[in-house]
Amino acid sequence: MGRSAFALVLALALAVCVAPVERKCLLSGSWQSDTSSRMVVFILDKDNRFSGFYLPGPAAGDSELLTSPLEGSQQDTGLAPQPTFSFTVNWRLRDSETARTTVFLGQCYVDTNGEETLHALWLLREAADNPAEDWKATRIGTSIFTRIK
């Protein structure tokens, strides 16, 4: 019985040592998109809300876009280690009267190597001059962000 108990304890100890650690994904930090845009997300508050800023990349093709504020929230990582998130960018524009807002909605994933990626769907809305122009005021797309180390 003594050897059996020892073998059981040893087996349990080894299982704990090699069990995969559940990785949690937090949005705070610096990220780069697949179009070379960058964003910085400040520390999440106790309600999982965050703020930061977004820097459009060359793929945006718009020299009027400036570094712009973002605000959002992330699902509690205690409930979901790979949480969903959303954030809004209210674009700051150089010498322009046109208002633009982009909303991102997505999920943070952690792969087996611990690398985090953000997969997001976005809607970009520009102000329309009148209801007849409304049809062309919204664009949709996707972005994948990787953490900048």
Low-confidence stretches: 7-20
Distance between the termini: 52 Å
Q: Helix amount, in percent?
A: 10-25%
**Percent of sequence in beta strands:** 35-45%
The major sheet is characterized as:
8 strands, antiparallel, barrel
Order of helices and strands: HEEEEEEEEEE
Class based on secondary structure composition and strand pairing: mainly beta
Q: Count the strands?
A: 10
Discrete helix count: 1
How would you describe the shape?
elongated
Radius of gyration: 22 Å
Give, in spatial order, the strands making up the sheet with the most strands: 1-2-3-5-6-8-9-10
Mean pLDDT: 84
Assembly category: single chain
3D architecture notes:
- It is elongated, with a radius of gyration of 22 Å.
- The protein is 11% helix and 44% strand.
- The chain has 149 residues and is mainly β.
- The chain has one helix at 2-18, and strands at 29-33, 38-41, 49-55, 65-66, 68-74, 84-90, 92-93, 100-110, 116-126, 138-147.
- The chain has an 8-stranded antiparallel beta barrel.
Quick summary:
The protein is mainly beta. The protein has one helix spanning 2-18; strands at residues 29-33, 38-41, 49-55, 65-66, 68-74, 84-90, 92-93, 100-110, 116-126, 138-147.
Features of this protein?
mainly beta, eight-stranded antiparallel barrel, 1 helix, 10 strands
Topology:
Layout: H1 2-18, E1 29-33, E2 38-41, E3 49-55, E4 65-66, E5 68-74, E6 84-90, E7 92-93, E8 100-110, E9 116-126, E10 138-147
